[in-house]
Amino acid sequence: MALTVLNPTIELQAENFELAPRLSTLDGKTVGFISNGKEGTDGFFKHLDNLLREKFKVADIIWETKSNYSAPAEDDIIERAQAWDLAVTGLGD
């Protein structure tokens, strides 16, 4: 019996890009959560929501949920995310 091993990495070179600058503080910032809609994400985001509000004094947390867990976020979610200072994406099973 033959065993075939597949390489899941991409063959092309990734384009160079700059990382977004780090925030010096979360105090007073707006954080957005983008969930894939699976059950396990909710508990994680609720806990993170509490930490960010209590410990890091964020001003607001926006919750968004994609309509399809395996697809990229919809354009309207990405558009609204432009107003956030920080985005957290999550998936959970």
SSE layout and pairing:
Layout: E1 30-35, H1 39-54, E2 60-65, H2 75-81, E3 86-90
Parallel strand pairs: 1-2, 1-3
Report on the biggest sheet: 3 strands, parallel
Q: What is the H-and-E element order?
A: EHEHE
Global shape: extended
Radius of gyration: 17 Å
Q: Report strand %.
A: 15-25%
Annotation field: number of helices: 2
Q: Give the structural class.
A: alpha/beta
Strand ordering within the main sheet: 2-1-3
Average pLDDT for all residues: 90
Task: Give a short summary of the structure.
The protein has 93 residues and is of the alpha/beta class. It has 2 helices and 3 strands; from the N terminus they run E-H-E-H-E. It has helices at 39-54, 75-81, and strands at residues 30-35, 60-65, 86-90.
Provide structural commentary.
The two termini are 34 Å apart. It is extended and about 60 Å long. It contains two helices and three strands. A three-stranded parallel β-sheet has the order 2-1-3, with helices on one face. The chain has a domain at 34-61 and 84-88. The chain is of the alpha/beta class and 93 residues long.
Please give a handful of descriptors for the protein shown.
93 residues; 25% helix; 18% strand
